């Protein structure tokens, strides 16, 4: 086994054709020839997962979750087999593994599982006979031996988890050439970031920057693993996501994130019956619905409460609030999907004064109203009208030279 081992992850767009798979195989051969051993994590080819879901719709609108997980994992299994075949054509010793074969044990929902453990020994043993180990991303198995999937961004999460148990760097390749200060499709002058702290990246991912799944960054952050994100088979330099203690300088503001996948749920009740909130949170917990931007207005005579959630949770939220109305007949519920979340992120906010006031002043002076605000040590998030999303992004990026 060699001392130089790295995890590389390729997304569906990077391996969407056999020609692309062969080009990646040739690139991986170059790295092996330079005395590296590699773990390659792959997604399903192209839009295969979407195609599988379309096929399901031909049979049922309410598939069993265990059956659906069984089906969806077949996309990644094809990818690992094709890539391993391409590598063997180049005389590279490779071994392909499903999530089950790689020992990726999970807990939770069949379609939204979380990784509980991975055996490092399995990989170290296989590296005695192979230069490249190819692992199916997005999947694992639960305590009953049933196949599970990891949900959105699951292949990124797989790659970061393997890198963490092996204590090696992780490189994630996709169709973008790094992390930008904001979405270049929204603000064309957005600047590419060479290095960003893991804390900042985790905040950006969780607040709408769709390049990396937040769970992937969190795993790397918790285990002190450097992440690299770059464009597949490109000579352009990407972005390093570094452990916080490796960052020598911190900007006041690093980026602006926009999250359009937002609904605002507002509840109003004519008395301050806090048992209602307890019942609400129990129902949300049972439905595994994550909520954000919680707001309560103090009023001795009325209960007014609001929160944000994802669009695809709307049907479940409507159902559970209907259940609440059976016990609280005067409960009023309004669901609004005309908002977006706008977040300003920067590790320098912890130490530099005046950043928050500048953000608020910039929005107010440009007549951009906001209905809710939440903060963390390194971010400020506003709920604004969707029609103002581009204008707000532009003025904040210009104000902070992003």
TrEMBL record:
Superkingdom assignment: Bacteria
Organism of origin: Atopostipes suicloacalis DSM 15692
SUPFAM superfamilies in UniProt: ACT-like, Carbamate kinase-like
Transmembrane segment boundaries: none
Family: Belongs to the aspartokinase family.
Pathway(s) of this molecule: Amino-acid biosynthesis; L-methionine biosynthesis via de novo pathway; L-homoserine from L-aspartate: step 1/3; Amino-acid biosynthesis; L-lysine biosynthesis via DAP pathway; (S)-tetrahydrodipicolinate from L-aspartate: step 1/4; Amino-acid biosynthesis; L-threonine biosynthesis; L-threonine from L-aspartate: step 1/5
Protein name from the UniProt record: Aspartokinase
Reaction(s) catalysed by this chain's protein: L-aspartate + ATP = 4-phospho-L-aspartate + ADP
GO biological process assignments: diaminopimelate biosynthetic process; homoserine biosynthetic process; lysine biosynthetic process via diaminopimelate; threonine biosynthetic process
Domain Aspartate/glutamate/uridylate kinase: 4-230
Cellular component aspect of the GO annotation: cytosol
InterPro entries assigned: AceGlu_kinase-like_sf, ACT-like_dom_sf, ACT_Aspartokinase, AKii-LysC-BS, Asp/Glu/Uridylate_kinase, Asp_kin_monofn, Asp_kinase, Aspartate_kinase_CS
GO molecular function: aspartate kinase activity; ATP binding
EC number: 2.7.2.4
Annotated ATP binding sites: 9-12, 174-175, 180, 185
Domain Aspartokinase ACT: 342-400
Alphabetically ordered keywords of this record: Amino-acid biosynthesis, ATP-binding, Diaminopimelate biosynthesis, Kinase, Lysine biosynthesis, Nucleotide-binding, Transferase
Binding positions (substrate): 49, 76
């Amino acid at each position: 086994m060699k001392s130089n081992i790295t995890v590389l992850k390729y997304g569906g767009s990077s391996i969407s054709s056999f020609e692309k798979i062969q080009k990646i195989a040739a690139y991986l051969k170059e790295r092996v020839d330079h005395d590296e051993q590699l773990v390659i994590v792959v997604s399903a080819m192209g839009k295969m997962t979407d195609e599988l879901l379309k096929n399901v719709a031909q049979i049922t609108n309410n598939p069993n979750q265990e059956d659906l997980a069984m089906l969806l994992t077949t996309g990644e299994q094809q990818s690992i087999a094709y890539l391993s075949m391409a590598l063997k054509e180049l005389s590279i010793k490779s071994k392909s593994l499903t999530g089950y074969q790689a020992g990726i044990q999970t807990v939770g929902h069949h379609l939204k599982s979380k990784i509980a453990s991975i055996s490092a020994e399995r990989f170290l043993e296989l590296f005695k006979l192979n230069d490249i180990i190819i692992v199916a991303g997005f999947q694992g198995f639960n305590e009953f031996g049933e196949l599970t999937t990891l949900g959105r961004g699951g292949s990124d999460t797989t790659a970061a988890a393997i890198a963490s148990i092996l204590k090696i760097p992780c490189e994630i390749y996709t169709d973008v050439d790094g992390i930008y200060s904001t979405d270049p499709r929204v603000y064309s002058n957005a600047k590419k970031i060479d290095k960003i702290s893991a804390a900042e990246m985790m905040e950006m991912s969780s607040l709408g920057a769709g390049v990396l799944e937040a769970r992937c960054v969190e795993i790397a952050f918790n285990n002190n693993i450097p992440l690299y994100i770059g464009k597949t088979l490109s000579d352009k330099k990407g972005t390093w996501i570094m452990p916080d203690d490796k960052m020598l300088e911190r900007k006041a503001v690093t980026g602006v994130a926009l999250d359009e996948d937002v609904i605002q749920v507002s509840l109003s009740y004519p008395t301050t019956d806090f048992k209602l909130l307890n019942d609400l949170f129990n129902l949300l917990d049972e439905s595994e619905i994550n909520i954000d931007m919680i707001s309560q207005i103090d009023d001795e005579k009325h209960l007014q409460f609001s929160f944000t959630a994802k669009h695809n949770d709307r049907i479940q939220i409507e159902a559970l609030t209907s259940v609440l109305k059976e016990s609280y007949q005067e409960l009023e519920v309004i669901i609004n999907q005309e908002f977006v979340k706008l977040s300003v992120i920067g590790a320098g906010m912890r130490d530099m004064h005046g950043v928050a006031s500048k953000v608020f002043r910039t929005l107010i002076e440009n007549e951009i109203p906001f209905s809710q605000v939440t903060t963390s040590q390194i971010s400020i998030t506003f709920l604004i009208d969707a029609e103002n999303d581009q204008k707000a992004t532009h003025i904040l990026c210009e104000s902070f030279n992003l």
